[in-house]
Amino acid sequence: MKSSSFKNPLLPYVLLMPTFLILVVFLFYPAFETFRLSLFKVHPYSGAERFAGFYNFRKIFTNPEYLSSFWRSLIFAIIVVIIGLMFSLFVAVLLNQKARGMKLYRSFLIWPYALSPAIAGALFNFLFNPANGLIGYFTGVRTWLTDSSTAMLIIIIAAVWKNLGYNIVFYLTALRNVPTSALEAAAIDGAGPVRRFFSITFTYLSPITFFLMVMNTTYAYFASFGLIDVLTEGGPAGSTQILIYQLYKDFFVHSKIGYAAAESLILFLLVVGITMLQFQTTEKKVHYQ
User: Is residue 261 a contact partner of residue 185, using CB atoms and an 8 Å limit?
Assistant: First the structure.
């Protein structure tokens, strides 16, 4: 096989320079600045910096509000991932059947992913708004978003619905790659539909399930900010305030720059740690064909 080469040895670096500059400006520099600021106390008005070492981190882990937000975020992410993947797989299996108008049904169920989190939040606010929400009108209950016991439930439902189309697209693609010969052979051997699904179909879906598990975890921790901001703003009484919204309030509302930088670093390390844990545990059960 003939290999291609550049006549000018500097040309590859020139071609890569725009990408490298974008990475430096929008990724590497902000990451370095976040780490640096986490070690400083920054005045909210003058911007004066004073080295504080690990003071911000010690303050974070002795703050009851942050610790509550930490565990709330973990529970929220687990529920969103599990319910989101289970429901998406169930819908994808139904959409994979041959029926009249199935392409139209697929389009309707996939389009929510095209919406921004803020628009998705506005739609749910239209449904559950305490003053004039449609759900409140028909059920007579107008405390969906103002009651601590139901506000997080609405956020979870909204988060699952928002990411439903993303999961369905990947599951539909994976279902198309399940060999019919294996399913037919299992049917001849007497395996029922449920056993064929868990023994054969789900085995072939395990790689995409693992991928979606990682992506949905990242989504639950980071991309749910817009939903919470539009629907509850972290309330009532902080019951829907997860880590990403806690970070937003500390930085933009309370101007705790160094403190918020430490929170950002902890959130990043947390998601990386959860992802690595998923690779160490769940990936062992993934069967790549």
Answer: no
Q: Hey, is 11 helix, strand or coil?
A: helix
Establish if 164 belongs to a structural domain. yes
Pull the structure tokens for residue 200: 């054969």
Indicate the pTM of the whole model: 0.88
Tell me the C-alpha distance between 29 and 37, whole Å.
Answer: 12
DSSP E strands in the chain: the ranges are 40-42, 49-51
State pLDDT tens for residues 9-19: 788 888 889 99
List the CATH number of the domain containing 158.
1.10.3720.10
Residue 12 lies in a domain: no
Per the structure, the complete domain to which residue 187 belongs is given by: 56-285
Of all residues in the chain, what percent carry a pLDDT higher than 90? 49
Give yes or no for a contact between 56 and 258, defined as CB atoms under 8 angstroms apart: yes
Residue pointed to by tokens 């868990």: 198
Is the previous residue joined to 236 through a cis bond, with omega within 30 degrees of 0? yes
Q: How many domains does the chain have?
A: 1
Provide mean pLDDT across the span 253-257: 89
User: Which residues share a beta bridge with 49?
Assistant: 42
Q: What is the mean pLDDT of the chain?
A: 87
pLDDT in the model for residue 264? 93
Confidence of residue 247 (pLDDT cuts 50, 70, 90): very high
Plot region of 256 (φ>0 → left; ψ -120 to 50 → alpha; else → beta): beta
What are the phi and psi torsion angles at 40 (to 5°)? -125, 155
Q: Token pair of 73, please?
A: 């975020």
Is 39 a residue whose pLDDT tops 80?
yes
Residue labelled with tokens 């169920």: 109
